[in-house]
Every structure is written in C-alpha cells, then in structure tokens.
Design brief:
This protein is 43% helix and 20% strand. The protein has 340 residues and is α/β, with parallel strands linked by helices. Helix 5 packs across helix 6 and helix 5 runs parallel beside helix 7. The site of 5'-O-[(R)-(carboxyoxy)(hydroxy)phosphoryl]adenosine has 20 residues, from helix 5 and helix 6.
Length: 340
Amino acid sequence: MNILAFETSCDETALALISVDRDQDTFSIQDHVVYSQIKEHSSYGGVVPALAARLHHKKLPEMIQEFIGRNGRDIQAIAATVGPGLEPSLYAGVNQAKVLSTVLNIPFIPVNHMHGHIWSALLNNRGEGQKPNKSEYPFLAYTISGGHTEMVLVRGYNDYEIIGQTMDDAAGEAFDKVSKLLELGYPGGPILSQIAEKGNPFAIDFPRPMSKSGDGNMSFSGLKTAVLYYVQSLSEVTEHDKQDIAASFQQAVIDVLLLKLSWAIQECDIKKVVLGGGVTANTLLRERAQDWSKDNGVPVHIPSLALSTDNAQMIAVVAALDILHEVSGRSSKVNGSLLM
Ligand code: KG4
Ligand code: ZN
C-alpha cells in the first residue's frame, strides 16, 4: 500500500510518499519534497504563526498537485502531523490532509511529530527500512529540536518513557534566542553554529546548568541569561566577541547534552542511542556524539541532515510502522494537540 504523508508543524511544508510491504514488513520512500518558509519569516526575526499557516494553505495544493502528477493516484492512506507544533500550522496541514482522505475515501493516519524524529532513524540512505525486531529494544531516543529536548527510553513500538527532559527552554530554542540576542538573524541554530566555527569555545566559561542534578533533566534558560549578562557587561560587542560567545555557548549546550546522555546509559541498559530533531544538524554535536559513541562503546545513530530538520519522510515512516504494527489512532493522544 502507498501512504501520502504531510508535515506542517512549523515553517516547513513537506510531503512524502511511502510504500509499505505488509508481507515483508518493509517500507520504502518513493518521493518526498520540502518547501522551507525561511525566506518569508526572516525579516521578522522568527516564525510568525499566522503567516506560516497562510503559506502552508497556499503552497500545499500546488505541491499536492505536482506530487500526484509525478507519482499517480495509487494512494491507500493519508497521514499528517497532528502535534506537537504551532497550532495554526498544524491546522493548515491537517485540514487539507483530511479533505484529501475524505475525497479519496481512504483512511487518515494521525502522527506525532516527535515520533517522526525518533523513527526516521530506521531509513537507510536509499530511503528504505523495516519493522524493528524485538532484539533492537530497548534503545534511547534523544530528541533535540526547537520545541523539545527529551531522552526517551523506547522499550517497544508505542512503549515510551521520558527519562529526562528540559525543565524550561528546548536546546534549539536556546540557540534561536542567543542568536537573536547577538543579532545574528534567523534561523538561529544554523547561523550561530556557523559563527561559532570562527570562535574559541573555551573563551568564556558559561555555566553547565543542572550538570550535577543527578538525573536526566536539563535547563537551557539560565544559560541564555548568562549570555545576556555577559553581552551587557561589554561596552561594545565586536564580531570577534560574537564568535567567541557563539562558540562558548555552543560548547556549553553540547557539554550538557552529552553529560545527560552519559547519565542515561548508567541508568538504563540500552542497545543504542538514536538522535533526532533539528539541533542534530549541528556539526559540532554530530562530531562530539561520534566521539562519545567511541568512548562509551554505545552505537549512536545520527540522522542525515535532510532527516534531522523537519520533513515528511519521518511522518511517513511512523504511518508505515502504525500499519505494520496494526495500530490505529495512537497519535490522537498527542499532548497539546486539539486536532483529533
Ligand atoms: O526539528 P526542527 O526542524 O523543528 C522542531 O521540531 O522544532 O528543529 C528546529 C530547531 C531550531 O531551533 C533550529 O535553530 C535548530 O533546530 N537547528 C540547529 C541547527 N539547525 C537547526 N541548532 C543548532 N545547530 C544547527 N546547525
Ligand atoms: Zn521537528
């Protein structure tokens, strides 16, 4: 069977088509497309929810038409992200997905965005994957995005336990806020990490919040405030200052993320770690996660850059896994989603 998946939880409009082989327990991405709204939001310094929704509304019909023109109408289900995310953006995608599923008289599969960040790890570089077998569990999913920073113990499909999470800002949110504070522009994470490459990561000793809390929880809001106080202490902020601040801040965030990962593997006997979410596109995090893996003897899966940030392939994979596990309506329990 073929499933058409929609992702519109923030400022990316994305579609993916996945084929599922229920006899072989395998799936394969047939086509996918992402339209980023970065250009339209950049002059506002961040995502404007009403504008994001308008752009999804406008862009989706032409993207669907092109997609069906390329791939045909052989579709047996429609999937869409129902949460968590920006509500106006979610509504835009879910509405159009539901209309399509009603018109085509095929089922609608609701998908949790964070599950997408976890399960896209099953895709190989040809866009193929298979239903995980029991021996692959338990593993630790570490989702690090603009809205979430969570360590999730995955004991089986649909069997999740959050063992650590941020108490305030998500790591990506901290990148975005510090970028704004340094007047680097939007999107904050990628710009800040680029500037950081020219700076000295040991120039400023920013705090590593909650590093001694003895649990899996984190805090990034104090770190952002420490950057603010540091900036206020300078009579003038030069380009060189910005580079050192960016590098030292990035180093502090990654130190905390990896410290908490080390805590997690002491607490839980896991087979591997799966990273997911936009911040995993960060070059230094990717390098240091690989080093961490070697040092600790625990395999770490790092998603490709295209699968790190928001996309519809990851939503399609969850829909395929729901079919292969014969789950229906699970994601309707998504926290903070009013869409079901
Ligand atoms: O997963 P994602 O695309 O959307 C959410 O689900 O939130 O993550 C977006 C977040 C943003 O906060 C963005 O600044 C951050 O990921 N991000 C990065 C990088 N690329 C994206 N943070 C640090 N370094 C990057 N290279
Ligand atoms: Zn995301």
